[in-house]
Give the backbone structure.
Amino acid sequence: MSGIDAQQSDLPETAPTRSGTAQFMWQQLPYLVALLLAIAGVAYTNVSHQPLTGYWEFLALAIGVVCVVTKWPEVDGRDNQLRLVWTQALHWIAVLVTMNIMLISGVQQLLPTPATGLVLLTLLALGTFLAGVSLLSVQISFLGLAMGAAVPAISWLKQSIFFFLLGAVLLIGLAISFWLRQDRRPPHVATRMSNQAED
């Protein structure tokens, strides 16, 4: 009987742990989706050489909505809720205006199209980080930092992809030549080498 009681006492502990982990992952999902969408936008811009104006505006608005929705339960009182909505609205309108300034044709002539995507991601990262600081939200600030870190990472990866390909071709070539040498070795040499190893 004591074994059954021990098993029953274990069950309530595992269920909240699983639901706690699922709830934590569910809470982090909007931030992960925003980061993936931002990186996908830069990747598409680099491949298609077309700035995605509407995409970046949508993403800025979506992150603004995430900021309001995630902080809404923590704000008490109608006045504080209205202040949250208005401050975030003004913040993200400023970010959108800055993004659109970068997309003006006169400014576009100074920047190549792939660089435009990186500049827009940088502005979005800065806006997200500052929104996180003003809301005292670690998750939103971290999202901004992750977006900002993605900018040099994408730039470095794009510049060094040629070297990665050359390194991969070199390693594949060495592996093939080593494998072919093993197959072409005469049988008596392989036997002699194994006999020397045994001695």
